[in-house]
Amino acid sequence: MDNNIHMMVDSFIVIEREMCQYMINRHEITREQAFYAIENGEFSGDVLTHENVVVIMTQDWCPQWINMNRWIYSLESDKNMEIFELVYNKTNYYKDFVRFKESTFGNPSVPYLRFYKNGRLVNETNYVNMQRFQEILNNL
Questions:
Q1: Distance, first Cα to last Cα, the chain
Q2: 46 close to 102: Cβ distance less than 8 angstroms
Q3: Is 102 contained in some domain?
Q4: What is the pLDDT of residue 77?
Q5: How many angstroms separate the Cα of 29 from the Cα of each of 5, 7, 68, 126?
Q6: pLDDT tens digits for range 23-68
Q7: Which CATH number fits the domain that encloses residue 87?
Q8: Looking at the predicted structure, is the pLDDT value of residue 131 above 50?
Q9: Across the beta sheet with 120-125, what order do the strands follow?
């Protein structure tokens, strides 16, 4: 292949890759969204309407969350991803949310992650390392 054509093809691939980058967007779960979940047993449509969603429920002192929070927003994704966080020990409705999370979702551990695809729960887990988190994202 002619060197000029090869360089043009390589440049096109780089430009195409740059144009196709996807975003991981961070959101804080609001009081209203948390109470909707408590009252209805699931998060509201404004959280789940996105194609790919991760809901993270945690507490700020949790060593696993501190670790995850260092790398979670620097991951590369092949799709747009919305991550909704609730650090519920920092809220004035802590006890209500803990009771809901443990009884309705049946999960007393932190961090607790729920993965949704088009509004449907497809995976849930507690702490995972970066590699496992990336695998889950790739399979959404």
A1: 39
A2: no
A3: yes
A4: 81
A5: 50, 47, 18, 18
A6: 899 999 999 999 999 999 999 999 999 999 999 999 999 999 999 9
A7: 3.40.30.10
A8: yes
A9: 24-28, 81-87, 52-58, 112-117, 120-125
Cα distance between residue 56 and residue 39, in whole Å: 18
- Candidates 102, 104, 108, 79; CA nearest to 20 is 79
Q: How many other C-beta atoms are found inside a 10 Å radius of the C-beta of residue 119?
A: 14
- For residue 77 the two structure tokens come to 């994704």
Q: Is residue 41 part of a domain?
A: yes
Instruction: Name the one residue in this structure whose structure tokens are 């093809």.
Output: 9
Q: Which range marks the domain in which residue 131 is found? A: 22-138
Asked if the structure places residue 63 within a domain, the reply is: yes
Provide the number of structural domains found in the chain: 1
Residue 9 included in any domain: no
Residue pLDDT, tens place only, 65-96: 999 999 999 888 888 999 999 999 999 999 99
